[in-house]
C-alpha cells in the first residue's frame, strides 16, 4: 500500500469544543467544516478530524490515545500553553530516548505530547535505524 496521507478522526459530541481548542492552542486551520464534521490542519502537514456520531456510531472514550506534536522549541511552547492556563498532564522533562517533552489533555481526553528532538543517551542510540 502506498499511503499519501495519514490523519486521525475522533467521533465526539464535542466537535465545537475540539475545534476551538486546536485552533486556539495549536493554530489549527480549518480545511473543511460542515458543523458536525471538521477537518483541521496543524502545522501545514498534520490533520485531525472531529465528527458528531452519525446513526449508531459510538463516541470516542478518551482513553489510550496520544497525539504527538514535534516542535522546534518545546520550552517556548510549554511556556505559551502554561501562560494560557493549560495544566500539564506530564511535566516538561528530558527523556533518554532522544526528546524533551510534556503533555496536556485535550477536551475529549486525548493526551497531547509536545516535544523537540534531543540527542539520545548511549543506551538508546542502538535502537535508531
Residue runs with pLDDT of under 50 for 5 or more positions: none
Sequence of strands across the biggest β-sheet: 1-4-3-2
Helix content: 10-25%
Order of helices and strands: EHEEEEHEEEH
Give the CATH topology of the largest domain. Signal recognition particle alu RNA binding heterodimer, srp9/1
Strand content bin? 35-45%
Write down the overall geometry. Answer: globular
Instruction: Please give the alpha-carbon distance between the first and last residues.
Output: 22 Å
- The assigned CATH architecture of the largest domain is 2-Layer Sandwich
* Rg over alpha carbons: 16 Å
Q: Structural class, from helix and strand content?
A: alpha/beta
Report the strand count. Answer: 8
Rounded mean pLDDT is 93
Explain what you see.
This protein is α/β, with parallel strands linked by helices. Helix content is 20%, strand content 36%. It contains 3 helices and 8 strands; from the N terminus they run βαββββαβββα. The strands form 2 sheets. A 4-stranded mixed β-sheet has the order 1-4-3-2, covered by helices on one side. A 4-stranded mixed β-sheet has the order 5-8-7-6. The radius of gyration is 16 Å and the shape is globular. The two termini are 22 Å apart.
Summarize the structure.
Strands 1-4-3-2 form a 4-stranded mixed beta sheet, with helices on one face. The protein is α/β, with parallel strands linked by helices.
Amino acid at each position: 500500500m502506498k499511503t499519501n496521507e495519514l490523519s486521525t478522526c475522533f467521533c465526539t459530541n464535542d466537535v465545537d469544543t475540539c475545534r476551538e481548542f486546536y485552533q486556539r492552542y495549536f493554530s489549527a486551520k480549518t480545511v473543511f467544516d460542515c458543523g458536525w464534521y471538521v477537518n483541521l490542519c496543524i502545522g501545514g502537514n498534520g490533520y485531525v478530524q472531529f465528527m458528531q456520531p452519525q446513526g449508531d456510531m459510538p463516541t470516542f472514550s478518551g482513553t489510550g490515545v496520544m497525539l504527538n506534536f514535534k516542535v522546534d522549541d518545546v520550552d517556548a511552547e510549554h511556556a505559551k500553553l502554561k501562560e494560557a492556563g493549560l495544566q500539564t498532564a506530564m511535566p516538561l522533562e528530558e527523556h533518554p530516548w532522544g526528546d524533551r517533552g510534556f503533555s496536556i489533555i485535550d477536551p475529549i481526553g486525548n493526551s497531547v505530547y509536545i516535544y523537540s528532538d534531543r540527542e539520545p543517551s548511549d543506551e538508546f542510540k542502538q535502537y535508531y535505524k
